[in-house]
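Example 5.3 — NTR domain-containing protein
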Amino acid sequence: MKSTFFVISIICACVVRCGGCSCGQDNGPRRFCGYDIVFRGRAVSEYVDRQGPADDPFYLLISDRVYTVIVDQAIVMPDSFRGDKSIKIRTPVSGSVCGTTFPLFSSRVFFASEYDGQVHTGLCDPNEPWDGLSHRDKAEITEHLSERC
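Solution (predicted structure tokens):
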């Protein structure tokens, strides 16, 4: 048991130390492309969906933080989510495996992918505060996203 914990600890340390999450910068016109779901909204609650036993720190790395997000404006929305007033978005708890956090009740644009019937996003996705986007980026996202992608 101790040797298993030691091996897992070494692997986790390598992921953190070696940059387990590495994002390439894309500032081109297609930087907002490739997402199944794009919308403007506000996270209103969060919880950790912890996987495995509570006393094992390894399982926290593979757990997800789940946000309930109110949809203010659907931009790209698959039929299975069209009309939903809120969406649950999952992101890894740890930043070393590309997890991110969102302040509650702050308007932002969310870029996410759907797989396994769930919505996922991460540190490398361009989830930005709505007020922090330039006028050009806001227009790109709300008016031209479907044309360019």
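Remark. The chain has one domain: 2-148.
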